Amino acid sequence: MAHHEGNGGGSLIGRAVDLRELTGYQEGAVVSRTIIDKKTGTVTLFAFAEGQGLSEHTAPYDALVHVLEGEVEITIAGNPIRVKEGEAVIMPAHQPHALRALTNFKMVLTMIRS
């Protein structure tokens, strides 16, 4: 799986933006752009091409996934959940989770490190 990092989010401060327009899809890849990166947490925009995903892993913090476009299957501790545009789910700390893009999809991932 190719993974590409975009620019930071400094240009977003103090103006309205459509997050869906800040990153594009790349076939066979997951594209990410960091919006906020602080010791206390991160906000990252992702664009997954259809069929791409993240294999099962755990994280030490809760993470909020907010789907901006498309549809993803998120499996948390063996339980698959379909999440579509406009919906959100919290992936709990220390629970194994995986993501699989059912269509091209974009999400904002907010991780609070405390």
UniProtKB/TrEMBL annotation:
It comes from the Bacteria. SUPFAM superfamilies: RmlC-like cupins. InterPro entries: Cupin_2 (IPR013096), RmlC-like_jellyroll (IPR014710), RmlC_Cupin_sf (IPR011051). Signal peptide: none annotated. Residues 45-112 form the Cupin type-2 domain. CDD domains: cupin_HP0902-like (cd02230). This is Cupin domain protein.
